[in-house]
Amino acid sequence: MLAAAGVAATHAVSSADPAAPHQVTYTLSTGGPADFTVTYLTGQPPSKAAYNADSYTYMKRETINVSPDAPWTFTTTFADP
After folding, report:
1. DSSP structure class, residue 53
2. In this structure, are residues 26 and 50 in contact, taking their beta carbons and an 8 Å threshold?
3. 17-32 confidence digits (pLDDT tens)
């Protein structure tokens, strides 16, 4: 749980063209085999109000198994990461 919290609390820095879509990759790796429950954005909501109305339309929560030789990754594209 601590590793998952560290991933969620990490802030990304971007200096790319703000008008272009941005590819975002989430990665979770570990030094030993472990199960994690992760919640992450899969798509960009059109507005904060749309997200607040139904956040799970834009998010996914799943339990994953991660090991040193098999990190978990998920890539998506956002207009405003």
Report:
1. H
2. no
3. 667 889 999 999 999 9
How far does CA 75 lie from the centroid of its chain? Answer: 8
Distance between CA atoms of residues 20 and 17, nearest Å = 6
Pairwise CA distance, residues 52 & 30, whole Å: 32
Q: Quick one: which of 27, 34, 37 has its CA closest to 7?
A: 27
Q: How many CA atoms lie within 13 A of 54 on its CB side?
A: 4
The candidate with the shortest Cα–Cα distance to 34, out of 71, 7, 62, 59, is 71
User: Residue 67: beta bridge partners?
Assistant: 70
Q: Which tokens hold the place of 23?
A: 């590819």
**pLDDT level of residue 2 (50, 70, 90 thresholds):** very low
Cut 0.70: pTM above it:
no
